[in-house]
Write a structure and sequence with these properties.
Two copies of one chain form a homodimer. In chain A, about 45% of the residues lie in helices and about 10% in strands. The first copy, chain A, has about 230 residues and is α/β, with parallel strands linked by helices. Chain A has two domains: about 140 residues, HAD superfamily/HAD-like (Rossmann fold, 3-Layer(aba) Sandwich), CATH 3.40.50.1000; about 80 residues, DNA polymerase, domain 1 (Orthogonal Bundle). In chain A, strand 4, helix 8 and strand 5 form a beta-alpha-beta unit. In chain A, helix 1 packs antiparallel against helix 2 and helix 2 packs across helix 3. The radius of gyration of chain A is 17 Å and the shape is globular. At the A-B interface, helix 2, helix 3 and helix 8 of A face helix 2, helix 3 and helix 8 of B. Chains A, B: Catalyzes the hydrolytic dehalogenation of small (S)-2-haloalkanoic acids to yield the corresponding (R)-2-hydroxyalkanoic acids. Chains A, B: It is an enzyme of class 3 (hydrolase). Chains A, B: InterPro entries: 2-HAD, HAD-like_sf, HAD-SF_hydro_IA, HAD_sf, PGP-like_dom2, S-2-haloacid_dehalogenase.
Chain lengths: ~230, ~230
């Protein structure tokens, strides 16, 4: 079935979530992160996601910026850096303008040239996403940026994926959903989208009810996939 | 307010979930686990929990034994052990009869001597829990074993915690809920139980809406806490 609409997860998929800790470690004063920034970034990300899922289950929604700060506070404490207010502020500032993966601009440009709809569907709050999209120079390459804030619950709640159908007026099978998060790709597949999981870390596929249709090492071949 | 009822999480709290991988590594033929059984156990546990949360959000419930196998399959593949059917079966068999932490029998006996209600409230399926309780010799020390299977959704959905009130006919504030899982203790605190988080690994407290009332290194002092 012809794909008309390509929807991208943001954090981890278009934007490199470990970039904030990596950049902070490379700056003057970042020596304290030299050894353990990869683990700090992984712990931060794991807690950010964990808190988003737990809040989706209990109905205690808050926005993703709060959850991002909560995850960072846990991770800083776990690494003995809880009192370092300057480091906390620096990491949050860098998270606000994460680097996009290098293949992203050309990949999106090719989708637009092919006449496809392009959008982000993300847990991120609208202001976080606006900051990241703008600093990565992607504004002109995306038709829309959809945030879970308009439904008040995090992924993978089905009402989040519904936002795509409402925005673009398309059937599920005409949507290619792309995520580097295995759980997000799995849920989108179970929901009924065509899905591509970008397995940047070479991890096993998640054992969830939905399985992604495509497993890719990066985003380079998305335009070929989308055009069938 | 007087505590009348002590409710325990099972996996990680009464039963040592890393015991299966640790034991398998120590057995003849377990040399392949020698180096990385702690990481295998951690990955298995992380995916087991992740899949339980994701299924709670999407409404795709299955029982915890299925989720336990799914998590193990992911972890075995991640450690290059996906084809080892004998190891898989051995780890699952050991999971069915996990060791209780050493302080558990006496702690429960003291609660019963003090006239308190005692029970498990767990994600585990009834047959998994029956296996673990029996092999650890705890059957006589627990008034009941409550499983999420009776409501068909995993923790921390509020209807799981409701099972305690329904079973014992008590108000929330008379319940002491004990868990080594920070997210479970946090959710139980937000729900309205008095809570104790058993922080066996010395981790930071989770940044969730509910905070545990007590943070303990193990279960030894639970009887003192419960009797105020």
């Amino acid at each position: 079935m012809a794909i008309t609409t390509c929807i991208f997860d943001a954090y981890g998929t278009l934007f490199d979530v470990s970039a904030a800790a990596r950049q902070a470690a490379a700056e003057p004063g970042g020596e304290k992160l030299a050894e353990h920034w990869p683990q700090l970034a992984a712990d931060w990300r794991a807690k950010q996601l964990q808190y988003s899922w737990l809040r989706a289950i209990t109905g205690d929604h808050t926005d993703f910026w709060s959850v991002t700060q909560d995850g960072l506070d846990w991770a800083l404490e776990a690494h003995g850096l809880a009192g370092d207010a300057a480091l906390r502020e620096r990491l949050l500032a860098l998270y606000w303008r994460l680097q996009a993966y290098p293949e992203v601009p050309q990949m999106l440009a090719r989708l637009k040239q092919a006449g496809l709809n392009t959008a982000i569907l993300s847990n991120g709050s609208p202001d976080m996403l606006a900051g990241a999209v703008q600093s990565a120079g992607l504004s002109e390459l995306l038709d829309d940026v959809l945030s879970v804030e308009s439904v008040g619950i995090f992924k993978p709640a089905p009402q989040v994926y519904d936002l795509v159908l409402q925005r673009f007026g398309v059937a599920k099978a005409h949507v290619l959903f792309v995520s580097s998060n295995g759980w997000d790709a799995g849920a989108a597949a179970a929901y009924g989208f065509a899905t591509a999981w970008v397995d940047r870390a070479g991890e096993p596929v998640d054992r969830l009810p939905g399985r992604p249709d495509h497993i890719l090492p990066d985003l380079v071949t998305i335009p070929e996939l989308a055009r069938g």
